[in-house]
Amino acid sequence: MQRLKATLCMVAAKFSVAAFTISYKLAANDGMNMKVLITYRYLFASILILPLALFLER
């Protein structure tokens, strides 16, 4: 069961990376400013990692 959880987490991570890459390319091709796009990317990553860091470090 533990191996299945790890595998599902890896698959979910890969799908989320793929979805973000596709949306990143679509926004870049649409003419969005690259500095703004990079800022959004780091902001989104920080919002996702912050709860993990807070809960796992306790």
From TrEMBL:
Record keywords, A-Z: Membrane, Transmembrane, Transmembrane helix
Keyword Membrane appears in the UniProt entry: yes
Transmembrane feature ranges: 7-27, 39-56
Keyword Transmembrane included in the entry's annotation: yes
Name of this protein: WAT1-related protein
Organism of provenance: Helianthus annuus
